[in-house]
Amino acid sequence: MQPASAKARESLKAAMARLADGDRSALEEIYRKTSAKLFGICLRILKDEKEAEDALQDVYINLWRRADRYDPSRASPISWLATFARNRAVDRLRVGKVRAGSVPEDEAAPVADKAPLAEDMMIDAERSARVHTCLEKLDEKPRDAIRTAFFEGRTYAQIAEAGGVPLGTMKSWVRRGLQKLKTCLERGE
Fold first, then answer.
1. pTM of whole model > 0.70?
2. How far apart, in whole angstroms, are the C-alpha atoms of residue 2 and residue 20?
3. Is the predicted pLDDT of residue 108 greater than 70, yes or no?
4. Which CATH number fits domain 119-187: 3.40.50.10800, 1.10.3730.10, 1.10.10.10, 3.40.50.1980?
5. Alpha-carbon gap, residue 49 to 41, rounded angstroms
6. d(Cα 103, Cα 6) in Å, to the nearest integer?
7. CA R_g for the chain
């Protein structure tokens, strides 16, 4: 089961793809899901609500025109859009369209996106696949004990009781299984 943030990211990616194909309803969906964050970015840089609203409008107009340029392998949708919003707000600062009270251009720092980069997600997926491949190579008893302990969060005592074996035996199975797992992972099998 995917966490809510992963589902939201995938939903936004799908909407971006539909928008690139000319689906007008996708723009409305993207707006609903992103406008609050993007408005916050514009407002933080421009320090003026009206200016931030204008910058935000520019973001979505340009998004409509350039949605086909979004590459999901390079950035998450919200990262790409946040960069778009930041750049739009900074552009407004550069051309002097902003009223007094806005921040200088050099204070318009990039906005961090807490979502992992696509490259990091691929590396994590490869590691996960490698762990599961190595787990499958273990004998059944240690493999099941390790999965139960580490993926289900159960204690060795709980696993030993459920399996009807002494606690020391369960600990030995897990310890030997983890040693074999480590060896397998180090070999890159």
1. no
2. 25
3. no
4. 1.10.10.10
5. 11
6. 34
7. 25
